[in-house]
Amino acid sequence: MPNESNVTSPVTLISAGRSGTSLLQGIFRHHPDFQTCGETISLVIRGYFAAEKVLPFINNEQHRTDEQRCGAAVRGMFLQMMPSEEKYWFHKPLGAATIGRDLSPASDPEGYRAWYWNAMKQSFPDGTFITILRHPCDVILSRAKWFKEKHEQGLAKICEMADIIADDASPVSVAVSHKALVDDGEAELRRVFAAIDRPFHPACLKALDVAFVQERGKPFRQKVENVPERAAQGFSNRDRWNEIDKSILTDDARGRLDRMWAKFGQEIDWP
Fold first, then answer.
1. What is the pLDDT of residue 63?
2. DSSP letter string, 124-150
3. What Gene3D superfamilies does the database record attribute to this sequence (predicted)?
């Protein structure tokens, strides 16, 4: 995927699963100057964690800190496993909250978030970090179909992800609006590419003609025949929001999600 000239500077998508991440990956995949890769969370976070564990048994270097060496180890794996000549690269290391439960005590979420963001920034010191904002109710319903989660389980996971993105240490600086992609995809993509200082390419719009299915066991990508009606055909579940027990949308949950959206100047239209 990367090469020596760009390995430190990927576009990194940080978000909860089923929030439009596959759509966004498809957009970058259609860009002729980008190489893309999907699920890289284990390579980054477990790789960094493993390097930390090994370093005490390796001679110290004088010109690099241990953190820098761990970050270099992660980049080395990317260079060896996914070399490419494209000018830019994009990846989506989804599952930060889930993998955190394996690596960090559940009693210290703040400590994990600090460690997680340090690992990300040491691994990609020149990187651009982005997210995608899709209405939480849509995400809850989509996760229920895809992961077979109860609604309260899905809500808990997207709240954990919101805490990570809204954390003071978070370098996530650009948010893509899922709704804006549906309403006026080209305008939203031109805004986003300008914000991340990468050139927009019209080929990216091809990804907007594809709907990603909501259930496993079906073709993952399906052509959308009537593009103007995509919002009513799988891009939004607004007509099903009443299936969610509103009692799970507690003040705490709403507050955590509101805080994350507010970081990007957006508000959630709660039911």
1. 78
2. -TT-EEEEEE--HHHHHHHHHHHH---
3. P-loop containing nucleotide triphosphate hydrolases
Helix (H, G, I), strand (E, B) or coil at 240: helix
Q: pLDDT tens digits for 98-118? A: 888 778 766 788 999 999 999
Instruction: Scan for tokens 């970058």, then name that residue.
Output: 28
Structure tokens at 159: 């709240």
Checking DSSP bridges between strand 88-92 and strand 11-13, what pairing results, if any?
parallel
Tracing tokens 């959630």 back to the chain, one arrives at 268
**Residue 120: which of 182, 178, 172, 174 has the closest Cα?**
172
Chain mean position to CA 48? 18
Cβ-Cβ contacts under 8 Å for 234 (sequence gap 6 or more): 211, 212, 213, 214, 224
Please enumerate in sequence order all residues whose Cβ is within 8 A of that of 240, keeping only pairs 6 or more positions apart, or say none: 141
The arrangement of secondary structure in 11-262, i.e. its CATH architecture, is 3-Layer(aba) Sandwich (3.40)
Strand order of the sheet with strand 88-92? 34-39, 88-92, 11-13, 128-133, 172-177
Q: What is the pTM assigned to this prediction?
A: 0.90
pLDDT in tens, 195-214: 999 999 999 999 998 655 45
The Cβ of residue 171 has, within 10 Å, a number of other Cβ atoms equal to: 15
How do the domains of the chain map onto residue ranges? 11-262
pLDDT bracket for residue 62 (50, 70, 90): confident
269: tokens are 């239209």
